[in-house]
Prior knowledge:
By secondary structure, the chain is α/β, with parallel strands linked by helices. It folds into 2 domains: 3-161 and 311-335, Glycogen Phosphorylase B (Rossmann fold), CATH 3.40.50; 172-295, 3-Layer(aba) Sandwich (Rossmann fold), CATH 3.40.50.2000. The chain is built from 13 helices and 13 strands. The protein is globular.
Amino acid sequence: MLADAARICLIACDNGLGHVRRVVGVAGELDRRGARVTVLARSDQAARFAWDARHFETRTSSDAFRRASREACRWHERLPDLGSFDVVVSDNLPEILDCRADALLMGSFLWHLVVEGAAPEYIEASRRRFNSRRPIMIGSGLFATAELKELTRFVDVGLFAREPLPWREKKDLLLACGRSGSCEPETAEAVCSLVARGPGPFERVHVEPRMLPDTPPHWMMPADFSPGMYAGLAAAVIRPGVGTLTDAIHAQCPVYCFYETGNLEMTQNARRIADHGLGFDAGSIDRAIDEAYRNGAAPAGDRSDPDVVPGFDGASKAASYLLTIAERGPDALALVPDSDQCPGENTA
């Protein structure tokens, strides 16, 4: 089959926007190269990234996996027929393997490894899947754990950044907790505290739009999460989801991580950021803000070192690899060694 006729289906977990954003980024690259792409995702989430998705809800979340919710644990049983696709990719839900044994995974974590208090039956079902196979998983090695790489044939494509950033003087602060619902009460309290505290060493403070006070001070504004906003950041105080982390790292501003107790994904991401000199694992939001105000516009880690950040073209590399799989069929699976290298980037 020719690569330009490849039929590829990308499925996005609908817990937060990071999964959808990554899927849409890869879909856009595939579309530009002539592939026939179908994205199964919540249409309202995909629309935020200007993509017309086929509406599908996985209804997956940490709480759902703690309760062993049938809707979440058996989301794949609601899928349409996938038989016509050359390649199927799930971000980042391994249940797809029950109906497409040749499916690929995408992302930087697996739910049964990071959800504290996940239902034993859910954990056991997930372990059985990986006992019987070692699927390919495409993602950012910066955030992938050793355990994840043991369970999968992990293909490191670098970070999934958006378009190039414009130049702006870095004088601003971002305070954001994401859209998963976690950390919202403490973030709202922190925004109120900042109103009294003032902007400190920053010229402007961008906050979650839904938490902006009715009458904010002139230096506080709703975050629009645009390339222009990120380009002007001197620091980012954030809950460390991979999407927001990637944008902050791409903008070359130090990251101050806060997160809820018991979330192993957030804990691991924060530790990776600190270990690589890209920011600080603050834990609590109050400490994160204090550190950001204390350091002002102190520089973060060196992004020119490929051992720290191996590029921001993850979507392009992932698309090249998927087209290689589509063109060569099952034989292409032999291209994936037990390493983190991406075999498709020079073969598409």
